[in-house]
Amino acid sequence: MSDKFDYIFAENSFLAQLAQIVQEIGTEAYLVGGFVRDLLLGRIGKDIDIVCVGSGVEFALKVAQKLDENISVTTYRNFGTAMFRYKEWTLEFVGARKESYSRDSRKPVVENGTLQDDQHRRDFTINALAISLNKQNFATLIDPFGGVEHLRKKIIQTPLNPDITFSDDPLRMMRAIRFASKLAFDIAPETFEAIIRNKERIQIVSQERITDELNKIILSDKPSYGFKLLFHSGLLHYIFPEMVELQGVEAVGDKRHKDNFYHTLQVLDNLSEKTKDLWLRWAAILHDIAKPATKRFDEKVGWTFHGHEEKGAKMVPHIFRKLKLPMGENMRFVQKLVRLHLRPIALVKDNITDSALRRLLFEAGSDLEALMQLCRADITSKDHQKVKKYLANFDKVEQRLKEIEEKDRLRNFQPVITGELIMQTFGLKPCPEVGNIKAEVREAILEGEIPNALPQAFEYMLKVGEKHGLKPLKKDTPMQ
């Protein structure tokens, strides 16, 4: 591979403009890090990292002024960094620096340095690459640690002693696995062994930073690879012990259960082939999370996990809170899918009733398609005929659900009989009787006894009220 990259600037007008501005300003500067790595992998990203010798903040302000005097530059003077957006590009600037660390913190003591100092502080050889923007050695690739060769061999390796690299900043262990998972690279043996030796150091890193890396692993094309590296390195035991508990197979006589850790990873991979939705992928990770807690052995039927879907749903908020994941709508989505993930599987029988289908429509609501995606991914049998049969049955279930939905309009079903209407009709104040009447009307709709329409539901509500000894103040159906 050539160490001159003039063609990149010739082919990209903005990079050529950027190089011209750098040379006009006269500050020593280089393209660095992920932008250069991805460039060598054949793709030009839109996030550009630039290292300069001197003040990164002052340099950023000068570049922005020459590009467009109206650009707003965000500066972080305590860290010596700055960034701004220009058209479709995001540029980040930092002054070249060298770092030293104390044992109890991943926050370094920073001093001004040279490009070589800056490359020495980088996490991996493939991220320690630089391309000069300077007139005297323009477009030259500077590769002090063999990063180009490691890109060719698909290897993640630290530039310096990996024990020092990971002890100084333990988050780099997560980053090593994230890059391996994202790029489908191997981690060099000595680098991986250092992760194993330093795994407990991850405990000094903030949960937010750990979870950010974990989410990036989950979003890789084949996330099981990253999770296997986390597991075998021992990092997973510190950052997500609930998942580690899924691993292993127990046997009584000739009766064994499957390894739920590797099953979960297969479900995650299956789902990842169909969607990049982070929260749907989290539902795959957590769908069987309560199996260790609900595992029982029965002499007649073997191993059982009764109620793992309900217990798993109850575990979701605790896990989200501990991992500092968002506790709002995304958490509730994952919780719903964990609770319901067995329901469609039970509906593949030929004699399933319309009422069971209505209940699934009612409970899944707008998340039905996501639930069905999860259930399809959950079929991990090695028997291809069995998988084919289950998928065909799911096709039938989805068709019947579509027919029921078109007929009964139960998607995102909101009962037409509200608590307020019940109280107005019977002259009641808030009390358990109101909830009981409302529940009976809802059940009648789900059982198909009455349609999901106000006139019929109101008439049914009057009958329920009379059964409870209540007399209506008015019997006219209210206007919708």
From TrEMBL:
Which InterPro entries is this protein grouped with? HD/PDEase_dom, HD_domain, HDIG_dom, NT_sf, PolA_pol_head_dom, PolyA_RNA-bd, tRNA_CCA-adding_enzyme
**Pfam families assigned:** HD, PolyA_pol, PolyA_pol_RNAbd
Stretch forming the signal peptide = none
Q: Which residues form the HD domain?
A: 261-346
Cofactor dependence: Mg(2+)
Claim: Iron is one of the keywords in the record? no
Q: Which UniProt keywords apply?
A: ATP-binding, Magnesium, Metal-binding, Nucleotide-binding, Nucleotidyltransferase, RNA repair, RNA-binding, Transferase, tRNA processing
Instruction: Cite the GO molecular-function annotations of the record.
Output: ATP binding; metal ion binding; nucleotidyltransferase activity; RNA binding
Query: Is DNA-binding given among the entry's keywords?
Result: no
Q: Classify the source by domain of life.
A: Bacteria
The tRNA nucleotidyltransferase/poly(A) polymerase RNA and SrmB- binding domain, residue ranges: 185-243
A biological process (GO) of this protein is: tRNA processing
Ranges where the Poly A polymerase head domain occurs: 29-156
PANTHER family listed in its UniProt record: MULTIFUNCTIONAL CCA PROTEIN (PTHR47545:SF1)
Query: What family does this chain come from, according to its entry?
Result: Belongs to the tRNA nucleotidyltransferase/poly(A) polymerase family.
Please report the name of this protein according to its UniProt entry. Answer: HDIG: putative domain HDIG
The lineage, from the top, is:
Bacteria, Pseudomonadati, Bacteroidota, Cytophagia, Cytophagales
